[in-house]
Amino acid sequence: MTRTLPFSFTLCLLFSPLSMADQVVREVPDTTAGKGAGVVTGLMVGAVGGPIGALIGAGAGFFAGSSVQEAAGLTETAYEVKDAKGEVSTVRSPNAKFDVGQQVTRKGSRLQSQDS
């Protein structure tokens, strides 16, 4: 009998984060793929000018890749999510769609609907 109280308290503490859902605050555009492609391209083009040229090319490619992806209309989807503590963070979600105010849970670096 004396062990059941600490055991049940421990179970409540372990399972309490499962009941706390995160909430989608807003949808934001994500240009991470364009930035990555721009950095690689800029790095290779800038490497002609040596190591300093490679760094400058990578920096320019970072901004150019993001701009090109936005201009082409190929931005992916990311969501700003507020957790139970009130902290807001941006989470990429290229395949799943969520509505503002929807309750979600995080599975690694992805979001999953609370209903599923």
Short description:
The protein has 116 residues and is of the alpha+beta class. It has one domain.
Distance between the termini: 37 Å
Count of discrete structural domains: 1
Radius of gyration: 21 Å
**Which runs of at least 5 residues are low in confidence (pLDDT < 50)?**
none
Order of helices and strands: HEHHEEEE
Shape: elongated
Describe the overall structure.
- The protein has 116 residues and is α+β, with helices and mostly antiparallel strands.
- The chain has one domain (22-113).
- It is built from 3 helices and 5 strands; from the N terminus they run H-E-H-H-E-E-E-E.
- The chain has helices at 4-19, 32-46, 51-71, and strands at residues 22-30, 76-82, 88-92, 103-107, 110-113.
- Strands 3-2-1-4-5 form a 5-stranded antiparallel β-sheet, with no helix packed on it.
- A hairpin with a 5-residue loop joins strand 2 (76-82) and strand 3.
- Helix 2 packs antiparallel against helix 3.
- The longest helix has 21 residues, at 51-71.
- The protein is elongated.
- The two termini are 37 Å apart.
- The mean pLDDT is 84.
